[in-house]
Design goal:
alpha+beta; Elongation Factor Tu (Ef-tu), domain 3; 2 domains; four-stranded antiparallel beta sheet; 7 strands; 38% helix
Length: 161
């Protein structure tokens, strides 16, 4: 499932308004997370997002961080195109291959990881994604797996050696 491309602008510093007609098919099928592609001046940014309902208006909104705004080179008064896709990923975000390889090599840590809520799994994945160096991603993934097996699940302690 996917929407057509449609024009959006920033609602505020971090949010985009998603018109009902573009998200309603996703909502009707019970989906609250989508894969998003944003297009502006020949640049494309892909992200995964939770779609929330604005209680005041009943409209749909998603977070669009400063990082993505900078990558797309958009500012508060700019308009750009967006397209929504069904989120078919297992965790609601793409799993870094380094983390996946480490988890696949450590069944005990993998089982603990799988027992977490999907939000906690995404939080761990995002922590690894932010690390730029592939070897550092592997190292942090190994530390995380060792800490899981020690019973450490506090996010503040999970990646400490």
């Amino acid at each position: 499932m996917k929407s057509i491309k449609f024009e959006v602008g920033l609602l505020d510093q971090y949010h985009l308004h998603i018109p009902k007609e573009h998200f309603q098919p996703f909502a009707d099928s019970g989906q609250s997370r989508v894969k998003v592609k944003a297009f502006h001046n020949g640049k494309t940014v892909e992200l995964y997002a939770a779609v929330k309902t604005d209680k005041a208006s009943g409209d749909y909104v998603i977070m669009f961080s400063k990082r993505y705004q900078k990558e797309l080179n958009v500012f508060q008064n700019d308009y750009f195109e967006l397209q929504l896709f069904e989120d078919t990923s297992k965790y609601g975000v793409e799993m870094p291959e380094e983390l996946e390889a480490v988890l696949m090599s450590d069944y005990q840590a993998y089982k603990i990881f799988e027992s977490f809520t999907s939000g906690k799994q995404r939080s761990i994945i995002y922590t690894i994604i932010r690390i730029k160096n592939p070897q550092s991603r592997i190292d942090k993934s190994i530390i995380m797996c060792n800490n899981l097996k020690r019973g450490i699940t506090n996010p503040m302690e999970l990646f400490k050696d």
